[in-house]
């Protein structure tokens, strides 16, 4: 099930997006960004590991069932839909 909500913010803000999994996923959580008309892009894997090429203003944290994506210094290009996903594997390979 997906629980979607909007988060009002202004450019330059620090924004935190939370995700709760139904059971512990041992830090196997990925965060994705989907901009309008584009395929989802992997930002964070293993809860806090930054994917290559992703700006350092994106930070993942959390453990157990509660995880957070923090964007520091919000920029115009960060306006998007963000998804979290729990998985039971190693670093995910994602293709669309």
TrEMBL record:
Keywords: Adaptive immunity, Immunity, Immunoglobulin. One of its GO terms (cellular component) is extracellular region. GO terms for biological process: adaptive immune response. Residues 1-95 form the Ig-like domain. The keyword Disulfide bond does not apply. It holds the Pfam family V-set. This is Ig-like domain-containing protein. It comes from Catagonus wagneri. The lineage of its organism: Eukaryota, Metazoa, Chordata, Craniata, Vertebrata.
